Amino acid sequence: MWKIVIDSTPQILSAGFKYTIPIAVISFVIGLALALLTALVRLSTNKGLFMIVKGIFRFYVWLFRSTPLLVQLFIVYFGLPYLKIKGIFPEGIKLSPWTAGIITFSLNTGAYCSETIRAAILSIPNGQWEAAYSIGMTRTQILKRIILPQALRVSLPPLANSFIGLVKDTSLAASITIVEMFEVSQQITAENYQPLLMYSLVALFYALFCTVLTSIQGYLEKSTSKYITPAR
């Protein structure tokens, strides 16, 4: 048993650092940028044709929060090649597993995190907006200098939880042939016929990664809250 563990560990960890962590980090960064844009668009007070844009973003959030991530991966990787548009995509939209995974994880993360950011912005008292307007600041200046820094502190715990969840969700990338940690454990299992041992081992590595990330989350929360006086 120990020989299997020792032989398998480097392969699984290599896949973790080569695919699992990069996919999670890249997808989260892109998703976070998309989430911020989505939240700001949905909170915008602009009227007229801009309402159509808000409707598109609202539909995007609804769509990705209402469907399973695994189904989304299958649609992007296996389904889009059959979406043939004459003159644009005559042979369908064919994406590599890596690209399909990044796109899907980013869109899914953006949809969920946008609600977190939107709620964080709404949690800032309206009096701060009014005070900033009274001294002549524009909406963009208020967001950049006053609202977003506070919203970041409020949204940090749930956003960190979303990232930790994304690290675990990357195991679904095995379904579209990305050779991340779970896929490697499946390949090794097919060779040694030890599913309980291999799946327990890969679960341990996911737990270790998430434990490290949880520690980083705790440090960031303390750093961003060190000037906050606890309520009495």
TrEMBL record:
Task: Name the CDD domains on file.
Answer: TM_PBP2
Q: Name one Pfam family in it.
A: BPD_transp_1
- Which cellular compartments is it found in? Cell membrane
Q: Which Gene3D superfamilies match?
A: MetI-like
Q: Which residue ranges run through the membrane?
A: 20-41, 62-80, 196-216
Q: Which residues form the ABC transmembrane type-1 domain?
A: 17-214
Q: In this entry, which stretches build a coiled coil? A: none
Cellular component aspect of the GO annotation: ATP-binding cassette (ABC) transporter complex
Question: Which PROSITE patterns does its entry note?
Answer: ABC_TM1
InterPro entries, sorted: AA_ABC_transptr_permease_3TM, ArtM/GltK/GlnP/TcyL/YhdX-like, MetI-like, MetI-like_sf
Q: Which domain of life is it from?
A: Bacteria
Which membrane topology describes this protein?
A: Multi-pass membrane protein
Transmembrane: is it a keyword of this entry? Answer: yes
Q: Which GO terms describe its molecular function?
A: L-cystine transmembrane transporter activity
Keywords of the record:
Amino-acid transport, Cell membrane, Membrane, Transmembrane, Transmembrane helix, Transport
State the similarity comment: Belongs to the binding-protein-dependent transport system permease family.
NCBIfam families this protein is in?
A: HEQRo_perm_3TM
Q: What is this protein called?
A: Amino acid ABC transporter, permease protein
Q: What is the lineage of its organism?
A: Bacteria, Bacillati, Bacillota, Bacilli, Lactobacillales
